[in-house]
Amino acid sequence: MEIRRIDTDILILGAGGAGLFAALHAKKTAPALEVTVAVKGLLGKCGCTRMVQGGYNVALAPGDSVERHFMDTIEGGKWLNNQDLAWKLVTEAQVRIRELENELGCFFDRNPDGSVHQKAFAGQTFDRTVHKGDLTGIEIINRLSEQVWRRDVKRMEDHRALDFIPAADGSGLSGVLMLDMRSGEPCLVRAKATLLATGGGPTMYKYHTPSGDKTCDGLAMALRAGLALRDMEMVQFHPTGLLAGAGTRMTGTVLEEGLRGAGGRLLDSSGARFMFDYDEHGERATRDIVSRSIMYQIRKGFATRNGGVHIQMSHLGPANVAKLFKGMVERCADCGFDLAGGLVEVIPTAHYMMGGVMFDLDCRTSMPRLYAAGEDTGGVHGANRLGGNGVANSTVFGGIAGAAMARAVRRGGRHADPDPAAVDESIDRAFSPFGHPAGDLNEIREGLLTTMWDDVGILRSGEGLARGAAALDDLQQAIGRCGVGDGDRRYNLTWTDRLNLENLVQVSRTICAAAQARTDSRGAHFREDHPTASDLSTSRYTVVRMRDGDIQITTEPVHFTRVPPGRTLLDETPAPAAVLAAQL
Fold this sequence. Notes:
This protein has helices at residues 17-29, 66-76, 83-103, 136-150, 217-224, 258-261, 287-299, 318-324, 326-334, 389-412, 420-431, 441-455, 462-480, 493-517, 577-582, and strands at 4-13, 35-38, 56-57, 118-119, 129-130, 153-156, 159-166, 173-180, 185-196, 229-230, 235-242, 265-267, 309-312, 343-353, 356-357, 370-372, 540-547, 550-557. By secondary structure, the chain is of the alpha+beta class. A hairpin with a 2-residue loop joins strand 17 and strand 18 (550-557). Helix 3 (83-103) crosses helix 10 and helix 8 (318-324) packs across helix 9 (326-334). The longest helix has 25 residues, at 493-517. The model is unreliable at 573-584 (pLDDT under 50).
């Protein structure tokens, strides 16, 4: 098979907040380098950052501080975070938010006095979420896309990454084998530095927020390349996914956290406000607590007509709600629901993966020439991500990665010849289904959604996880037996579906295995047969690797590099946040 070959200095996989920021910072650091962004869809029109509604956490206002933001992040993550990465997040967020507005053209909401408005998000001790109404992600991605289009950045749209290709001399990564979806042909891109920024996207669950094109491709590639992934059991469910009924993709999409932060109430089918029965913070408890509480209430028999609970906003004044949450009100109205004045059914929905590739402060991975940023990485959020920390994570570490790659390439980066055996293996994996009898991919998909929701979801147990692991092994074998009709390969949706499911099942197996290995409850991972947390001072995180298709699980100790459990940084005097706020 003839393979088109391309060489570039820096290859960026993904065009969300991490990928676009990386491209901008790479060009800023070394303008002469050739930077190429490869994306599964169209630049500016895909990825999860565009779907962000709530906002961007950053310590700006008087009374807030990076220390306070850090402690909220660590305590929300149940002390499993890599503290150096979390510190980098909260400190660089202050730099990045000024860059977004003052350099890149974002317009965030302001207070009457001209200061940046920051709203309440659950799990935080301060209202620090900067936003553009409830459509923050669109504002950020639109501005980032405009800036990338203005610069000499190469684009490879409608190209999906298939596999990392190591160098023949064993020196690290050579490049990436990609599929040109427009031609149906393979393309090998060699790069002196490559960024993994494809995003996570837990679309293997029955209810999920990301778009269907998010299928954990980058994480699956990392597993096949032998990279270590941490915290894979930590899948976050957003408590309020729209429950619009069967047969609509709107079911599962997020009704943002600001609704509860502003005073929204969760009611069961009897009309009872139940959250204070589970946590003293009520609806403003962290996402894991609210999601579990909803599932317990449903289990008790208080489910609404479609199997969820209600969110109520009308007590805050319909006109006020319509003004503050215009996007959410319109989204619900499109589905026939009145968010401002009535009741809307919601259910927890798979939203974000705290786990991912292990990486360092410069976004380097264990494979030379490969960097990672955004939701493909693990360690920043620990066991639970605070709402508003996700887009901060992507933009902070995307920028760091872009600058780090440019510096490394400028110092003496080189292209490495690819390992031909690895190329052949990747080609065979991706193209071998052609000409073989077709299988029922929809049956496999439904089996995956049901298995992950029922057995590897919000409420877990050893028995359920064992059942889930067996079912996932069967699904993997079923995919292996599924062929693809030997027809036109251009935009072949059946082929795309098979590739997506193969990656989703592979990543799902690691989620299940890591969940089986963690026999305590932390954050998003809750074991009903082990409902308490183990000793925080001896915390360990799970590490997943794949060898010849087999999953290997180990654990590593958490190093409390800045503050140990039971202590806080808030005893220290913070720098005045008002100075930072005045710069916006």
